[in-house]
Amino acid sequence: MAVVTFDPTAFRTTYPEFASVSDARATDMFTIASYSILDNTDNSPVMDVNYRTQLFYMLVAHMLLLLGTSDTPTLNNAPPGRISGATQGTVTSQFEYILPQGSSMSAWFTQTKYGALYWMATAQFRSARIYANGSSGIGYAKAYGVAPVNIPGGV
Questions:
Q1: Number of domains within the chain
Q2: Which of 90, 26, 105 has its CA nearest to residue 63?
Q3: Which residues, at least 6 apart from 87, have a Cβ–Cβ distance to it below 8 Å?
Q4: Is residue 107 part of a domain?
């Protein structure tokens, strides 16, 4: 299996709204995402490297909106959450940070459309899957063909 190598040009082709973001800034967001959010190793639950690449692009776009698109920290004044209300006369604005049912992490992801898309696209990897290995029951462990244990006293 392969790992994703971040390509800033391909990222900007997918998300042209980030055309002004420097390669260094976008690559930094990818590095943070690959170290802390989505596993980019051979042990990743996302086996398809093309799918994982698209997930990383969503994460980079999400993080750029939250943490800012500029290399200069003073220009990164993005508010947390989505705008839920605005007034023009005497300037009022409201932002929402909803804690949906389920994981508390979903609130962080649903602050932007890219994060919400990532959260929905990765739902299949957050679900527990239980597979029955053969049919076990009274008598024999049929999956392994092993005779039952003889318990003295017939318990």
A1: 1
A2: 26
A3: 93
A4: no
